[in-house]
Amino acid sequence: MRRRRFWLMFGFVIFLLHNQARAADPRLMDVHFIDVGQADSILIQTPQGKNLLVDAGDEGSGKGLADYLHSHGVVVLDAVIATHPHHDHIGGMSAIMKQFQVKAFYMPDLTHSTRAFRRLYEAVRREGIMIFQAKAGDKIDVEPGIKIRIVAPLKGGYDSLNEYSYVLKLVDRKNSFLFMADAGEQSETDLLEKRVNVRADIIKIGHHGANTGTTLPFLKKVNPDAAVISVGKGNRYGYPDKAVIQRLRYLKIPTYRTDLLGTIVAHSDGQRVSFTYGLENDHRSGRQKKAVIEPSANGYNKG
């Protein structure tokens, strides 16, 4: 209890400092692609101080992820989204439920016979958190000008649980992000056949860069200005797959990888996106590397 009070007080102080730093640019939205090894976790921080978490790493990620959230001023999570019930996406989520107030929890209508899933379900029940089993077409209105739309999965009968992953489209005025979770070729094909608007400025590549998806037709349709791959350094799967990297290079899409750069933060002002990244990517160090993604020849998205 004493430790939790400390983190609440510490988080509140960082929250105040964080808001002061944002005062010069009240339109800034930060999307943190957090380095959680061979797993996924994304923190979205909005101009009005909302915090949303998409996935929470593996079972060993809980403490480090909680520390990262605390260090970036997170006290309340306005929404937590579990894209699908695999351990490398929900493993750290039960720890997050214990340390943060969660206003809403979104997950697909799926179950899984794993310890990670049981712990998550028990944590949700224990904390009395409301569960929304959203589906494709549903949207989360975050604040004026910012929304998240669930664009997949579009149907059932898939061969792999990965294909049931939520594919999320985050829109910040003229900027947009597409988070693929672990969705693969079957889900991508359905999105193309249904003519879903998947155009996005930044794409989080599916399944840690495995060659189960990120097909050339889908990448061409998304037409991103940059890609991010959440992947563990020296992972035993050999991800990201060489074929996926070749497709990204063929389309001349700048690619940022957590195994090479550490945590990657995309900063959106509603018009353009810049990145800071590096293993030292911490608000306390002030030593972040920076890259700016200029609007593409086709302009920023839109929709």
Radius of gyration over all CA atoms, rounded: 18 Å
Please state the average pLDDT score. 87
- Taking strands numbered 1, 2, ... along the chain, how are they ordered across the largest sheet? 8-7-5-3-2-1-16-17-18
Spell the H/E element sequence: HEEEHEEHHEEHEEEEEHEHEHEHEEE
Say what the CATH topology is.
Metallo-beta-lactamase, Chain A
Shape: globular
- For this structure, what is the CATH homologous superfamily? Ribonuclease Z/Hydroxyacylglutathione hydrolase-like
- Cα-to-Cα separation, first versus last residue: 45 Å
Characteristics of this structure?
single chain; 303 residues; alpha/beta; Metallo-beta-lactamase, Chain A; 9-stranded mixed β-sheet; 7-stranded mixed β-sheet; globular
What does this protein look like?
With 303 residues, the chain is an alpha/beta fold. It has one domain (2-293): Ribonuclease Z/Hydroxyacylglutathione hydrolase-like (Metallo-beta-lactamase, Chain A, 4-Layer Sandwich), CATH 3.60.15.10. Helix content is 28%, strand content 24%. The protein contains nine helices and 18 strands. The chain has helices spanning 2-22, 62-71, 87-90, 93-99, 115-127, 185-193, 216-222, 242-250, 258-261; strands spanning 29-33, 42-45, 51-54, 76-77, 79-81, 101-102, 105-106, 131-132, 139-143, 146-152, 167-172, 175-179, 202-204, 226-229, 255-257, 264-268, 273-277, 289-293. The chain has a nine-stranded mixed beta sheet, with no helix packed on it. A seven-stranded mixed beta sheet has the order 9-10-11-12-13-14-15. Helix 2 packs across helix 4 (93-99) and helix 4 (93-99) packs parallel to helix 5. The longest helix is centred in the first third of the chain and has 21 residues, at 2-22. The relative contact order is 0.13.
